[in-house]
Structures are given as C-alpha cells and as structure tokens.
Amino acid sequence: MIVYLLTFILFVMGLYCLVAKKNVVKKVIGIVIMDYAVNLLLILVGYRRGGVAPILLKGMDRAKFTTQSVDPLPQALVLTSIVIGLGVLALMVALCIRLYEKYKTFDMSEIRRLRG
Amino acid sequence: MQGMTIIVKTVVRIVTSFIVLYGIYIVLYGHLTPGGGFPGGVIVAAAYILIMLAYGKEVALRSFGDKSASLLDNLGAFGFLAIALLGLTGGYFFLNFINHGQPFRLVSAGTLPLSNIAIGVKVSACLYAVFIALAIFGRAVYRAMEEPGKEER
Amino acid sequence: MVLFVVLLVFMIIGSIIAIEARNLLSSVISVGTVGFALSIAFLLLGAPDIAITQIVVEVIALIILIRGTISLDNTAIEKHRDTFAMVSALVFFGIFLAFSYVALKDMPEFGKPLMKVSQGYLQRGLQRTGAANIVMSIVLDFRGYDTLGEATVLFTSILGAFVVLRKRGRKKKEERDRARVGIPGDL
C-alpha cells in the first residue's frame, strides 16, 4: 500500500514538473519521470512475495513454478513501453532543438510571447 | 568533429566488438534467458553510437550511413510482419507455425528466435538512425548559432 | 518491502533534485540516477528482462538528453515565477493524491497478485510456444499484436524526429510550386 502511494507521489512530481516549469527541457524531464512511475506501478502490481522470475530453468518443477512465479503479463507490456518511451524521448528532444533554433530560448512564456 | 583522444579511440576499438557480440548473444538467446530483441537491439545501437562519439561522425557514417540504417529499419519491421503473415498459412495471424522442437535448446520455440532477430535489427537500426539525425541535423543548429545572421529564415 | 520503500524514496529525492536544479545538465544527470535506481528495483521485483532493457535504454536516453542540452543554453529560467499557478497546481495534486489513496484500497495487496490470465500463460507457455522465457512467449506469441503496434510507434516517432530536425527539406520544390501558382513566398 505504502509502495503504491510512493509511486503515485513520483508520478505527481513528474506531473508538477510538466505543468509548473517554464523550461522546455524540464517539461521533457517531467514526462520521463511520469513514464518511470507508470512502469514501476505496473511491475509492482504483478509482484508476488518471495516470487521467482518467470523464466523456466532446466530442472525446475513445473507445478511449483506456476504457483511461485511473479506475474509475467505486466512485464511483457512494460518491455514494449520502455522502448516506446525512448522513441518518444528522442522525438521530444528533436522538437526542443528545433524550438531553440527558431526562438533562441527554452523559455515557454518567452516563446509564446514571440509567437505574437 | 574529429573525435576524442587516442586513449578513448584505442579503448573503443578493443571494446566495440565485444559489445556487439554481447548484443547478438542477448538477441539470439532471448527465448531461453532474460533478454530478447529489444535490449539486444539497444545494445548493438549503443555500440554504433560509441563508435560515432569516439571517432567522429565521418568515420561512423562511412561504414554505416543513414541510408543503410533506414533500410535495415524497414527490413526489420517488414521481416516481423512477414513472420506474422506466414502464420496465415496454418490458420491465423501470429501462428507459431514452425515445429517447436526440444525445449531449452537454441533452435527451439518455432518462430520466436526469428521474430527476436527481426526486432533486434529493427530497434538497433532505428535508434542509430535517430542518433544520426540528432548528430548531423542538430549540428547545423549549433553552426547557425555560432554565426548569427547567416541562417536562412 | 522496506527495500522498495528505500529505493522509492531515493527515486523521489532524485526527481526532486532533477526538477529543482538550476543547471540543466545536473538535472539530466539526476534523471539518470532515478532511472538506474528503477532498474535495480526491477531486478529485485523479479523482472530481469525489464532490468536489462531499462539499464540499456537509460544509457541511450542520457546520451540523447545530454546531446540535446549540452551546447545550448543550460541555465534554468528564474524570472517571473508565477506563484499562483504553482500553488494551485500543488493544491490540485494534493487532491489527486487523496483520491488515489481512496482508489488504492481496491487494488490487490502488495505481494499478492491477481494472475487470472497469467496463470494460463504460466501453465501452457512452454507447451504452446516451446520458449523457456515466459515473458518472451507473451511478447512475441500470445500478444504479438502489441509488439507489432510497438514497432509501428517506434517507426513513426523516428520518422517524426527526422522530419522535425531536417534543415533544408523540400523547400526549393515548394517555392517553385508557389511561384507557379502565384502565392507569395512568405505566408
């Protein structure tokens, strides 16, 4: 319970950084932190106390493995989500570089004013 | 950008082949041990990015340019799609149509190693391509900043 | 349990430093520490696949972020702080956390997952796919559509980065078209 709540606090900190900060790169960092928090929450939900990783080894008892392993489904979903996060991060950094080239600043309010 | 010092270059020359080998191992053994196409592809891409950072972009682009990177990217994506479509021969999309074989062997699990290889190629080429974009096209931004007034508006 | 709480507190402190640091470079490096702590947490949670992926992706993400910020203006923006917006954002986030506390009571208890669907995957994964790594059998066989969609999203994002960053583009052709039709060049 306390672990879930701490994950939510991490998410809220990313959201705060996204909403309240003026710097564009800080906004990108906020999105990255939110990404971390969501991935961690999904893995935490699937954790079994004292569980083993969902990978069969050679001399392992199958029936015991089924009752002992952690949940493999959130892991499969998060595996794709992490790589997508990297692609999105690259796109956001590209947009930041482009904005800097156009307006010579990272300040969001400045950019809005220059826009007219 | 002519790269870093000779110490970095020497270390990179020794280390890079091992990094690529480790990435290939991670991709090939993805269905038996932790790993798979995604992390293996990212490791191979990291090796190329290391070469680019240490030796400068000219050397890296001469051996593996952006054209071939995007070509490999497309090949990986279409390979994965083709493996999925070949499942239609046995009935439905994403059918594991090859014989499963003996478990815990390298050649087992039907189409999974092939899909892993396709995804590994795709992810590595994709990340290398985006780093090329950031390195080359981003460089134009810095040059435009250094001499203001010269950039076209 | 205590271990995860310690790791999460470390991650929260790292993210506070990342959010409030003056210099963008130190902020980026603080995000890196949060990501590496996250990979340790994944390893302790019984997810070695995710731990490997996270630690490698974190390295590449750090390189990309530093690449994006190091030569540009990397001082934080301090002037004209909007205190009203900040306070209202904090109040709304407090409300969000309170509601999430209510919602979390319905979640399964930590350490006791539901596993209604996954039970079947764990039982039949080896017979149906022949792969010893159950996560890979889910990613590439049982839920292959997800991976296909992921490949598409990755492709699209990289395409977007290329298009956004390209300096010269197809401008000449566009100007020629405009001249032919008679539209003035600068709209």
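qc> Chain A touches chain C through 80 residues (CB under 8 Å).
qc> done
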